[in-house]
Amino acid sequence: MLWTSASSGSDRPPVIVIGHGGGQHKTAPGVLHRAHRFVSSGFAAVCMDAPNHGDRPTDERYQRIATEIQTAASSGSDLAALLADFHALVAEQTVSEWQAVLDHLDAGPVGYWGVSLGCGLGVPFVATEPRVRAAVLGLGGAAASSTLEAAARVTVPVEFLIQWDDERVPREQSLALFDAFGSTEKTLHANPGRHADRLPEHELDSTVRFFTRHLLPH
Amino acid sequence: MLWTSASSGSDRPPVIVIGHGGGQHKTAPGVLHRAHRFVSSGFAAVCMDAPNHGDRPTDERYQRIATEIQTAASSGSDLAALLADFHALVAEQTVSEWQAVLDHLDAGPVGYWGVSLGCGLGVPFVATEPRVRAAVLGLGGAAASSTLEAAARVTVPVEFLIQWDDERVPREQSLALFDAFGSTEKTLHANPGRHADRLPEHELDSTVRFFTRHLLPH
């Protein structure tokens, strides 16, 4: 899904790639809310259904792993580590898919916004794709060595969001992921709330200013 | 020192009380920089020399304790705990001094900005003074139970700054202080850097928006 503005100040506005959350899809309410805000702020926005999400067909392999993770989690296994490995597996597919979307759009400077699943898939994407010049990530942790390795290869400015009372991502793993980013400019923003609670609106204000600072010519 | 603007949109703009850092004074460069920015953003700003700082006379008692702390620190004692106790002692004096300044100014809504010493003295001030409606604090930790008790009594919105590589305030103590604030709205902002490194300019932008949101009528 691509959002653009007819009144954009530029023929070729910077594109914000939005990574949706687990179980969501490319037109989830939170995605739409952010996309509209980005477009009204001088950007284009794009969001793709992740594999096994939204309008895409059921992927038997991912479906099986997701079911295994649910079973393992209910038996007390380390959910964060299982999810991190799963995200790394899915990212092997999505990084190249998202790069193909940027090719198709003939994208110039790109920003990335994604939390939770959008962080798990986003970290390897931002680490790999040089068109991405700034990234907002969060609600994810460094539960797998692959995540830490990818985070260390991220060098663009990062704004990293933590829900302080996140019951799914252990706080120390969130802090470790922030720690691991190789970026010179990185800012951690933590707010009270649980994993699925709505992010404060002032964080979206901050995100828009962050992307404006790094992606829009003065 | 009071800064006001002749072109202020209000006869009685909200006042930002600035708490300077240890060893600094009421016209230190960082204080001036923030004061000018606040005044150009619709606020008044005020900063007072802390006891034993700036133009105030040497206070033999504080001077003796400060010297003892330096000696203890060089022999490996817990500097953070010693400083926290010292700040709590000084705050017994500064809270009432700063309240007298607000009385003198006939202040309405007040914001507080202070890091390091300005945080140590600021937490009990913000906890005590009902005219303070929003506070930016940081570069301080919860090394003393008195700090935690005062932080729990803070209920106004808080923006809390951490230098991620702070060599003076242990990171876990900073996180514990953020955790302890009783505020419903509180946001932690962490950036790379050591204790005395310059804060990123985008944090001052954020501070201005934070005070604007909470102190200036729409």
Gist of the model:
2 copies of one chain form a homodimer. Chain A is of the alpha/beta class and 218 residues long.
Description:
Two copies of one chain form a homodimer. Chain A is of the alpha/beta class and 218 residues long. Chain A has one domain (2-215): Alpha/Beta hydrolase fold, catalytic domain (Rossmann fold), CATH 3.40.50.1820. The first copy, chain A, is 44% helix and 17% strand. Chain A contains eight helices and seven strands. A seven-stranded mixed β-sheet of chain A has the order 1-3-2-4-5-6-7, sandwiched between helices. In chain A, helix 6 links the parallel strand 5 and strand 6. In chain A, helix 3 packs across helix 5 (122-128), helix 5 packs parallel to helix 6 and helix 6 packs parallel to helix 7. The longest helix of chain A has 27 residues, at 79-105. Chain A is globular. The model of chain A has no long low-confidence stretch (mean pLDDT 94). At the A-B interface, helix 7, strand 7 and helix 8 of A face helix 6, strand 7 and helix 7 of B.
